[in-house]
Every structure is written in C-alpha cells, then in structure tokens.
Amino acid sequence: MREVSRSSVLQKATREKLDKFNTIRGKEVRPGEFWDLVVITAVDEDQRASYELQIQEKCNRKELPIGVSYLVFADPPGYKIGNGGSTLHSLQLLSDQYGESLSRFRVILIHAGGFSQRLPNASALGKIFTALPLGEPLYQMLELKLAMYVDFPSHMKPGMLVTCADDLELYSASDSIVFDKPGFTALAHPSPLSIGTTHGVFVLEPADSSSVRDLEYRTCFQFLHRQSVERMRKCGAVLKKADREFVYTDSTYYVDYATMLTLLNLFKDIRPLRCEVDAYGDFLQSLGPGATLDYTNDTANVTKKDINLVEIRKKIYNCLRGASLNVVLLNESKFYHLGTTEEYLFHFTSDPCLRAELGILPAAFSIYEPEALEKAMACVMHSVLHPTASVSVGSVVEFSRIEAKATVGTRAIVSGCWVCTGLSVPDETFIHTLCTNQNGQTSFVTVAFSIQDDLKKSVSKPADMDQLKMFGAPLDECVSRWGLCAEDVRFSGDGSVCNLWDCCIFPVCPDMKSSFTSTLDMVWAVCGKEKVALPRNTRLLSLQEILQKKDLKQMLGFRKGLYEDIVAAK
Predict the structure, then answer these.
(1) Residue 322: which region, alpha, beta or left (left: phi > 0; alpha: psi -120 to 50)?
(2) Which residue, among 476, 460, 449, has the nearest Cα to 542 in the 3D structure?
(3) According to the model, what pLDDT value does residue 136 have?
(4) Is the pTM of this model over 0.85?
C-alpha cells in the first residue's frame, strides 16, 4: 500500500515537471528561467558531430527550449578518461570559451559519451537520444533529464550540475531544492542495501532534528563507493525505518563556481590524463571529515586497473580535501537506470510503478491498432504498424515500419527496422538495422542478438569463440549454421580481444528490407530452423565497424519519413 501511495505522489510531482517543461519546449526562455548552458559529453569527434546534428534537428522541430546554448564536448583522442576526466576536460573547454563570464552561468553537464554496449539500439545515435514512450513530439532522454531538473536553475547559484544520460530520478518535494552552498551538493535517494553495493552511499552527519521530511538538507561525513553491506554497516551508512533497512545512494551533484575553479586547477596538475577517472567515486570519496587516503589504493571495483590511477587519486584527494559535501535527502524519490536491454524492457513494458509515475504509454507517436497493444503490454514508439501486424507481451518497437501479418515475439526489441509482410521475430530477440556509408556508397546492416547475450564478454583469440554464446548456442555452432567456417570469421578492432561486439558476422545489403530479412534468417537458423547459406563474397561487418561507418543522416531520414506518415494520419 505504501508503494502505491508513493507512486501516486511521484506521478503528480512528475506530471507537474513535465507540464512546466512543455510550456518552454520550443519557446524562447527568459534569463534565469532555464540553464544558461547545456553541455553534453561525447566519446570522440565522430560522436560529437552526430550529437550536434541531432540537437540541431531537435531545435528545428521545436523539441527543446530556444535561446539556450547547447554544447557538445568530445573527449580528447587517445586514452579513455572516464566521466571524471570528461568533467575536467569540459570545464577546461568552458573556461577557454567563456572565461570569467562562466562565473555567472548555471550549467548542466550530461555525461553521454560511450557506445552503450549493454543497450545497442542506443549505440549509433547515443543514449542521451534514447526514445521514451511519452510526449508529442516524442520525448528522448535529453528532454526528460531537462524536464526533471526544470526547477533547479531558478534556485541555484552559478555553478554546474553533473548528471548521467542513462538514469532517471523522480522525486516529490514540498519545497524547491536549493543549490546555494559552497563545495559539492549531492542528491540522495533511499535505496535497498543491494543497490548500495553498486552505487555511491552517503554516511551522514547526525541530524539536528529527528523528524523525517520529504526534503532534508544534511552534511556528509564520508562517501562510500561500491562497498559491501558489511562495510556500509561498519561505517554507519545503514539506516532503519519501520523495520526496513536502507542506505542513501547517489545520482546527481552540483558544484559551485569556486569549486569549479578548484577542479580546473586540479586538471592543470594531472593532465594529460592517461587513465579513467570517476566523477563520483574519485571525486566524492575525497570529501567529508571522514575521508581518508585509504580509498586511493582500492581498485577492486575499477573496470580497468591502471598504475596511474592511484597517483591521480592522491592528487584529487589532496586538492579537494576540506571541501564540503552537502546532501539533499529526497525521501520521496526513486532512482531508475535505463542502461541495459533488461532494464529497458522491464521499465517500458512491465514495471507498473514507472509506467504510472512517468505516464508511459503503450504506444507513443505511432500508427497502430489500439486493441492489439493494450492486450499485449507492449511498447511502440515512433513507428508505423499495419493493422494486422502484432507485437507480443513485453516487447518494444521503436522507429520501425511493420507490414501486414508480421509478428514480434515476446520480450523482443525491434529498432530502426523495416519488417516485411509475414515475417516473424523470435522471442527474446534484439534486432536493429543501421545504415552505413563507405566510399560514398550507402548500404544497410542489421544486427541481432539475444536479449541475454553479453556483447562485452571476451576471449583472447578467435580459436576460443566456442566460449562465446549467441542465442544460447556457442558462437562456432552459430557460424556453422550460417554456412561459414569458424576459421574464416574475422574480429575487428585491434585484435587484443574477441567478443560479439567485434565479431564480423552481419551481412551488408543494398536496402533495409533485404538487410532485415537476411539477418532474421540467420537468427532463425540458430533457433533451430534450416541452415542458411550466405551468398558468396557477402561482406560481413561487426557492430563496432558498423558504428564507425554509420550514415546518421540516412538513419534520421528514415525516421523523418515515419514522422511524416504519422503526422499525415492524425
């Protein structure tokens, strides 16, 4: 009952934020009404260019507030620098561009760099442009992030809000959240202990009052990052309410202008970066009176261990030591992550809480047969479905055209595809068509995986491909069912690792329809139907190569065609 009541409160608060954002969507904003600068990070120059193109198109379609500077900053070439490195690099570029004028600006920095290997339908266009089943025009993550923080700029001293592109915080507060303190100010959400082991957790200073309100301002004694339940208990992070244990986990934080200058000075001391720095773990663990140097040597939870990281962390600690870490407790809030195929399917089709809180629709900005979708608990976005087409329970279809009597199985993701008459997508299938351009020639490649496939799992050499699984079968068996020899399969990249992301198995085709059909035949071959024989001399690419050769304008052009058909049908 408590959960239902909480969802109802969040639904009302979220609706108010969306309504407020809709009043400025496509309109000129007044000074102080909205962010002065919206900064989005990209992993490289190619991604930067694609983000800028999409932002320009969104502005042209009046999907974003006007009169705001939207900037995209690419990470420097070479070493991966993490979102902490991106934060510092972006600060430097802002300082170079605006100088002392930056002291008057309210900035939001959204970390969106990377290739979204756990949600590949966001790989080509970027996770910040992930479509959401609400709004007209259709919302993407960029608009939703801006909508959820729409009240922040008018209650914020000049400074910068740091957030990520694939998470979502819904909250209800009786008063406005105010960002006016020096140092860092972080939002905190009550979460189960299991969530705390994979996120940052705040150990709070004692409260002045024992009463619990929906919005509380506290100070943090110590910040823990991805620690065990035992460690969280020992440090005093575990709290109890009505026999329920919980911790306060991190999401988004603000730094005032003086702290931005401190971070700039830090960057001058540690650049050029040659290792990944975490904007949460590496910055926030150095804050609060309980912070010690111990964390600088703890690399147990670091994805890529690097000998430079310990020294960099020590410099961060010495630079930020003494800065305050203020915490805004959002006791009526929820934190959602949308970065994997499983999370994507669950939240868009099965999760009654988020569907209610956000007002998620079974179909948004689409042509479809209403009765079919209402029964299916499916999700369709920016797509055209023939009245006789069907989408099964728990599946998502986005930016696609589905012809007569075509079917989509359960818990599938169909993205950017043209599904011809009578074709059937198997259960638990991810399938996505991309456009490529090589030497001026436009081609199409459709990639497909099982929802459970781990695209990042690697083996050291091609001969070990039997250890990689695709649709539940060893990869060498899949290759055999496609009429290929395992020895002939190529892996792209530098050859240091072999995984599904780099495996060159997807045929290049002249048009969208044949591309989809060719790859779908390969999927069915693995799922037990007859073997397929790819035509001789068929060029095969990996998803990694496709993204390097992607033709974004063609892909956006297909979406525009769908848009025009949908508008014409309304």
Answers:
(1) left
(2) 449
(3) 84
(4) yes
